[in-house]
Design brief:
The protein is an alpha/beta fold. The protein has 11 helices and 14 strands. The chain starts with 20 loop residues before the first helix and ends with a helix. It catalyses: D-erythrose 4-phosphate + phosphoenolpyruvate + H2O = 7-phospho-2-dehydro-3-deoxy-D-arabino-heptonate + phosphate. Its EC number is 2.5.1.54.
């Protein structure tokens, strides 16, 4: 390994400008020597469960933070998040009759792609944007916003602590209830971190040991770029976010690069098009894919395409927009003889007020009072239950 960047910036978008490449080299060497965070068998088990969801025999519920904070990697907070996920999944199963695959946006969701590389404060100061705790800190100072490679080691440690807590929870409940595994997924954004944690699997291949399920974001899904090539190189189940700008040709290329008909749960397409775009754009993609559409798991992300700015200048989302996208997603798939495989939500385990119930409420100039997110707005526990219950009723 050299002190130069491992990846060409033009081929790997949304990568930090690290403060020291020499320190980055040392950090990556340290990560390469560490044990895997998850084992390959669990990743293979998740692939099989996603395959069942793709066939309509189960449903994936993925919920959790937009951007995890290191400070939340303590047993009390992790258990609260896991309990919320499992309650939502139980409610979904009770209503729909479908088994639920339970996956958190957890134990690795420490990095976020951003629309702009900088942020201008009210006094005119220009700072690097907050990119997640694995890169920098949200406090509005230059020191906090500096991208420090040492934070990758903190990401590994906090992810490990979180996964240990989840495993202890699952094992502790196994003797008292039907065992329900908590899988962990995150966006595989920081490619040097992800690559440093690639390990051999039992079949002679390689898997990303940073999490059970890894997805590529809508901003980094270019088929000829490094994020997609990384996803193609590992045996984990992987997802790709598909937004309204994704052409049918691009989606087809991604399916052929990342899909595997021998393993139907290998590829999930996570659709995030917004309530206005979901039916026409998804219909266009499905028509172009034809029979290939049946070889992937179709998951709805009804959050990211419906982010707005409210009258107080805060980013927010409306539950009625979220539900409209879910309804359009389900109807478009059914029109093509396909089954919805899952739902990805950004949720808080505390009673925050970051999303509103109706779009009309977004016009209010009064700031939402309990706004705690480090990045995007999350559903409160009440709102999450409402969305899950209404989705279950659709199915």
């Amino acid at each position: 390994m050299t002190a130069t960047r491992l990846l060409l910036p033009a081929r790997a978008l949304q990568q930090p400008e690290w403060a020291s490449l020499d320190e980055l080299k040392d950090v990556l060497l340290s990560l390469e020597a560490k044990p895997p965070l998850v084992d390959a068998t669990a990743c293979a088990d998740l692939t099989a469960e996603l395959g069942r969801a793709a066939r309509g025999e189960a449903f994936v519920l993925q919920a959790g933070e937009c951007a995890e904070r290191f400070a939340d990697a303590n047993p009390e907070t992790v258990l609260a998040k896991a309990d919320q996920l499992h309650r939502l999944a139980d409610e979904f199963t009770d209503t729909s009759g479908l088994p639920t695959v339970r996956m958190g946006r957890i134990a690795g969701q420490y990095a976020k792609p951003r629309s702009n590389p900088t942020e201008t404060l009210s006094d005119g100061t220009v700072l690097p944007v907050y990119r997640g705790d694995a890169v920098n800190a949200p406090e509005p100072t230059l020191a906090a916003r500096t991208a420090l490679p040492s934070r990758l080691l903190l990401a590994y440690r906090n992810a490990g602590n979180t996964l240990s807590t989840l495993l202890e929870r699952d094992l502790g409940l196994a003797g008292r209830t039907a065992p329900q595994r908590t899988y962990a997924g995150h966006e595989a954004l920081l490619l040097e971190y992800e690559q440093a944690l690639v390990r051999p699997d039992a079949d002679g291949g390689r898997y990303g040991s940073s999490g059970h399920f890894l997805w590529i974001g809508d901003r980094t899904r270019q088929p000829d770029h490094q994020h997609v090539q990384f996803a193609a190189s590992v045996s984990n189940p992987v997802g790709v976010k598909i937004g309204p700008r994704a052409s049918a040709e691009e989606v087809g290329t991604l399916v052929r690069m990342l899909g595997d008909r021998r393993r139907p749960g290998r590829l999930s397409l996570i659709v995030r098009m917004g309530r206005e775009n979901i039916v026409p754009h998804l219909t266009s993609v499905l028509r172009a894919l034809g029979d290939e559409a049946a070889g992937v798991a179709w998951i709805c992300d009804p959050m990211h395409g419906n982010t707005r700015t409210n009258g107080a200048g805060q980013k927010s989302r409306a539950v009625d927009d979220v539900m409209a996208e879910i309804e359009g997603f389900v109807s478009a798939l059914r029109a093509h003889g396909l089954r919805p495989a899952g739902l990805m939500l950004e949720t808080a385990h505390r009673p925050v007020t970051e999303c509103v119930d109706t779009a009309a409420e977004l016009a209010s100039p009064t700031p939402l009072p309990h706004y705690e997110s480090a990045c995007d707005p999350r559903l409160s526990p009440r709102q999450a239950r409402q969305v899950v219950a209404r989705t279950a009723a659709l199915l």
